[in-house]
Amino acid sequence: MNKYKINVLSNKVRLITIPIKNAPTVTALIMIKTGSKYETRRNNGISHFLEHLFFKGTIRRPSTLALSSELDALGGEYNAFTAKEFTGYWVKVANSKVGQALDIVSDMLLNSQFDAVGLEREKGVIIEELNMYEDNPLMHVEDVFETCLYGDTPAGWETIGTKDNIRRFKREDFIKYLEAQYGANSIYVVLAGGIKEADKKMAAKMFAVFKKNKWQDKLPVKERQSVPRVRAVYKKNDQVNLSLGVRAYPLGHPEEFKVRLLAIILGGSMSSRLFINLREKSSLAYYVRTMSEFYSDSGYLTTQAGAPIARTAEAVKIILEEYRRIKEELVTAAELKRAKDMLQGKMLLQMEASDNLANWYARQAVLRGRILTPADFLARIKKITAKDLQVTARKIFVNRGLNLALIGAAPEEKLKKILRF
Questions:
Q1: Beta bridge partners of residue 94, listed in sequence order
Q2: Which stretch of DSSP H or E encloses residue 192?
Q3: Which residue, among 125, 111, 142, 82, has the nearest Cα to 304 in the 3D structure?
Q4: What number of CA atoms fall less than 13 Å from residue 32's CA on the CB side?
Q5: Using alpha carbons only, how large is the chain's radius of gyration in Å?
Q6: In the predicted model, what is the mean pLDDT of the chain?
Q7: Which of 243, 280, 386, 279 is nearest to 328 (CA)?
Q8: Please, what is the Cα angle at 403 between 398 and 404, to 5 degrees?
Q9: Integer CA distances (angstroms), 149 to 38, 205, 226, 390, in order
């Protein structure tokens, strides 16, 4: 596995470098410790909207075309993303183009103009992005599930925000948020791939000029639930998209790695229990997946699937039965080994790419507050026993943590009656 190094610049910006020997590419990822969980009800969606505005032009590159033309000329890939606890901007280029990539990205973050005309025009773009998510139940069901879990709190709000907020935002709203949340106190710079010493020096020089900011921390998540919950969004479809899961643990909790393995065994592959039972044996769904999500202060495990309206209850019963079974019966040695081997194999494949490697280390630094290397991660997984998994399963698969999100014309009242262990 690759060795990494953290340099703390004079302004306290953290520069993390992960070299890959003989790699022809480098990924530069700038991650900011802010996202929708750092917002208020009135400015919900501003993190995501601000991400868009950074691509609208700077003083030196005064338009979207000027900016994107230079990025395209590098012959690489670039994009940005906003999540609940972080926002990222990345460029992946040939290792001879790193300096140019860093110059463009730092210029975007330091010198964007936030032109009022362009801002107003972008509102329509983001509203169409919101419409796209709402029209795609496979994407939207995760948001509905998190709203079911966390309710009317920053953790339960959608990252993209509301149409009312999007339409209401003014230039001064972005300037205020930018000055608070973007700066030396919340910026992490990551370089991964075929890095040269000159690249490190250039990154250090460019990002040492960022000023310290009055970064505002997020409100902590409060886990409050005593009975199963259902949240349904009506949509006229032939299918019901569902997400049935339980509250689990935050990143860094001793149970984290066990929850990850439970998710793989339940529905993390085509040989997993729920994939076989829901799709192969019952023909109830085309897509089936169990996933685990970990934030800095909360987490969950959930199974997502698309089922016929008339057979939604049957699908829910099968998922609940597999949740019951995994806490009542020990996972077999063969099944446990297969899950561990799959996790290790996928990680080794992912870590060959500089963009995945950069993303891994950035998330570790932002969410954990320390670096857990892929090798450290796999070592933790290796130690887990079947009995460990059963103990964890018995803790999380309980009625008071059970949540069901639905999109479609679901038989909501019928499902509420069967939603229990």
A1: 25
A2: strand 187-193
A3: 142
A4: 34
A5: 22
A6: 97
A7: 386
A8: 135
A9: 18, 43, 12, 24
Cβ pair 229, 402 in contact under 8 A: yes
- Per the listing, tokens 């910006």 go with 13
- The two tokens of residue 67 are 């900016």
What sign does the CA torsion over 334, 335, 336, 337 have?
A: positive
How far apart are alpha carbons 357 and 371 in whole angstroms?
12
Which residue type occupies 285? A
Q: What is the pLDDT of residue 389?
A: 98
* Tens digits of residue pLDDT in 229-269: 999 999 999 999 999 999 999 999 999 999 999 999 999 99
What share of the chain in percent tops pLDDT 70? 100
What are 370-384's pLDDT values in tens digits?
A: 999 999 999 999 999
Of the candidates 327, 328, 347, 349, the one whose C-alpha atom is nearest the C-alpha of residue 339 is 347
Residues in Cβ contact with 363 at an 8 Å cutoff, skipping those fewer than 6 apart: 31, 86
Q: How many other C-beta atoms can be found within 10 angstroms of the C-beta atom of residue 16?
A: 21
* Residue 77, both tokens: 């890939």
pLDDT exceeds 60 at position 84: yes
Token output for 78: 């670039």
Question: What is the residue-wise DSSP string for 291-305?
Answer: EEEE-SS-EEEEEEE
Q: What is the pLDDT of residue 1?
A: 57
Alpha carbon distance 360, 202 (integer Å): 22
Q: Distance (Å, rounded) from C-alpha 307 to C-alpha 274?
A: 13
Residue 139 contacts by C-beta under 8 Å, 6 or more apart in sequence? 133
How far apart, in whole angstroms, are the C-alpha atoms of residue 14 and residue 33? 12
Q: Which domains does the chain have, with CATH numbers?
A: 5-207 (3.30.830.10), 229-418 (3.30.830.10)
Reference 286, options 261, 258, 266, 306; nearest CA is: 306
**Pairing verdict, β 229-233 and 402-407:** parallel
